[in-house]
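REQUEST ID: PR-0412
SUBMITTED BY: lab tech R.K.
PRIORITY: routine
TASK: structure prediction, single protein chain
INPUT:
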Amino acid sequence: MSIKYIESIDEVIEIHNKTVEISGGGALGVIDTSALESALEFIKDDLYYPTFEDKLTHLFFVANKSHCFQDGNKRIAISLGLKFLINNGYLRATERFIFKMESISLHTAAGRIDKDLLREIICSIVNEEDYPEELKIKIMNAISE
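STATUS: complete
OUTPUT:
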């Protein structure tokens, strides 16, 4: 299956602006999108990010942690992840992604969920109906620290 990527930072800025507007407001200013621009290119490299889940994890993590925008960085991480899922036909995972990633995004931004755990979470959301018990315990341990 050929992966359909988010192609430009202009598309990301448009998604950001709509996300902030629809989700209750906030500042629309751009701080520095260079990290996100790099991520958009870097996830195309199958050597570093061989699976769809690896690509989605990196995109989400960079959008969440890089503070590219004045406001809405956690929200844009969710919106870009959702767009990436939809673009690539993972429609069954979209509802789970929206529902579960709101709190995951918050804990990722706060540093309680690292990139490795984030990858496990995303793999579960994409491929399973619910988190396995072992993953639930890892999440609980991470967010209670």
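NOTES: The chain has a mean pLDDT of 90.
REVIEWED BY: pending
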